[in-house]
Each structure stands twice: as structure tokens, then as C-alpha cells.
Amino acid sequence: MSLHDIDSTDQAVTPAARDAAPPPLTALRSKDLLGIADLSAAEITLVLDTAEAMKEVGTRPIKKVPALRGKTVVNLFFEPSTRTRTSFEIAEKRLSADTLNIAIATSSVAKGETLSDTALTLEAMAPDMIVLRHSSSGAGHLLSRICRSGIINAGDGTHEHPTQALLDAFTIRERKGRLSGLKVAIVGDLLHSRVLRSNIQLLTKMGADVWVSGPPTLIPAGMRDFGVTATAHVDEAVGDADVIMLLRIQLERMEGAYFPSQREYFNVFGMTESRLRLARPDVMIMHPGPMNRGVEIASEVADGPYSVILDQVANGVAVRMAVLYLLAGGVDHEEAA
Q1: Is 14 one of the catalytic residues?
Q2: What distance lies between CA 290 and its chain's CA centroid?
Q3: Given 55, 161, 183, 194, the catalytic residue
Q4: Cα–Cα separations (whole angstroms), residue 250 to 209, 258, 262, 308, 318
Q5: Which of 133, 192, 194, 275 is an active site residue?
Q6: What does the pLDDT look like over 97-139, one tens digit per residue?
Q7: Residue 133 designated active-site
Q8: How far apart are CA 200 and CA 211, in angstroms?
Q9: Is 60 a catalytic residue?
Q10: Is residue 137 helix, strand or coil?
Q11: pTM
């Protein structure tokens, strides 16, 4: 797929079949991307297909297209971030958008300004999109109600992290050729993970068999209501898995002792080479980062031949380019070239 055929149709389809089938999607239905829950399977597929075209841009000598020329994107990050913030910035620049990064520590927020007032101040300057990361769940939904700008959720509290789930799905599909029918084991701090919530919604929506595992104290109540298999026996979750996704132990969000020690956690739930042998021979090892080596994952696994952790980072740029492009409504073919 190229940038020239993002919204092309199959010329071999008969008129009757074309009338019966819904028209192919060429843009997302909403001006915002707040969570995977809001996306249909067709929209998820559209993002992944578009990301394939965007990834090609990164292989060119000049890694830039004019798709968002004249658009302004504000990056508003209230929490520390390396991978997400950097990949959004690169994605925006590759699409030729004008970008503005707000340094929260030196902004009016440090003087007590509320999120709403900050957003409305930025809105008065007529940005086209705001990329928001915030420690409060639902912060993006608040901005979407008061701002005309498109809002992209780059992680809100323990709620969702939609672009991480999309890039994870893109990486899986790139390696496996599909999502449907794969056994995906997600192991780690399930209770505090917004990555988990977005991934299980996306993967179950796309037909994957999702297993989740961690200490009983870190398995949220009602987990099975999301259509996944939850177990405290990690070897059961990892057995015959096509994909293993490790989640960071988020000590900064924990109040109290959820397990005896980090060493004990690694012994019982850590991904080691011996535990890896329970999975399929072509298993993929994933981690959204940052990693706690020797806690949720052994270094020989993180750096081993089954790891696609750096591929996830690379694919994050292409997926976020696709999201920005589609939320902007797409462009004419000649403008995207």
C-alpha cells in the first residue's frame, strides 16, 4: 500500500457486490482518538493499513511528506515520556505539521492553572490537534468536550493508551500476518496498566485469544468480563503463546505491598529463557517500555532473537503518523505524495 492508494477501491469488485458492501473507510469517524473502545474493527484496520504506507516514508532519503502542511499540533504532556512524546514529535515533523511542545514545569500550570483553562488558552490560538498525556483518567474526554481541536489521548491515568495498542497490533500483524486466532499472553502489573486496557479491547475486537497473568493482587476484578482468560499461573498463560507482552511494574502508582519483593516477583512471574520455552517456537516478546530488567524481564530475553521491543519503538512513528493523518481527514492523493 502506498500513500497514493489509501482510499482506493478494488476495481475487480462487481457493481452488485459494491452496492451490497459498505464503502471502504478513508478516515476515522471522530475528530478525536480517546480510546480503542471508540474504534470499530474497520477503523483499526484502516489505521494499521495506513501505517504501512507511512512506514515507507521513513525509508526515504528525505523523510518528509506535505500531508499536514499548514496544520498545527500541540504536544501537551503532564507526565514524563520518552518513547510516546518523541515518536509523536517525529511523526508530526515527517508529515510537515507545525508542532508546539508545552513544557509543563515552566507553564502556567505550575502557578495553579487548571487543565481546562490551559486547554482553552491553547484553543484560542487555533491549533488543529492536541496530543495529551495526563495522570488523570478521562482527561482527554474532558478536553474533547470543550475544544474544537482534535484530541489524541497519549495516555490518561490508568485508563487507556490507544496509540500504544495500535502500534503493538501493527508490530504483531507485521510479523505474524494476522491478529485473529493468535494466543497473546499479557503478563505483569495488570491493575495499573492503561496499555493493558487498550490492548485487550483491540486484540479481542480483532479476534485474538488473550490471556492475562500476574499476582492475584494485581489482577483487576471483573477481568473476564472483557473476554480474556485471567490466571495467576503464568506458565499456563505463556504456554503455546504466539505473543508474550510484558508490562512494567508501576511502583510509582502503588500504595502498599502488592507482592513480597521485586526479586520474588521475578522468580514467579519474570520472563526468563526457561519460561520462554513454554511458548511457541516463533513467539514474539513485546514490552511497551520502559523496562525493569531483572524484574518483569531478563536481559537475555529482552535482547534475544524473539524480542521485537525496538521494532515497537520504530513502528510507533508510523502508527502515530497514520493517526494524525486520518484524524486530519486525509488529504488529496497528489498532496500526500
Answers
A1: no
A2: 14
A3: 161
A4: 25, 11, 11, 22, 27
A5: 133
A6: 999 998 776 577 767 889 999 999 999 999 999 999 998 999 9
A7: yes
A8: 9
A9: no
A10: coil
A11: 0.89
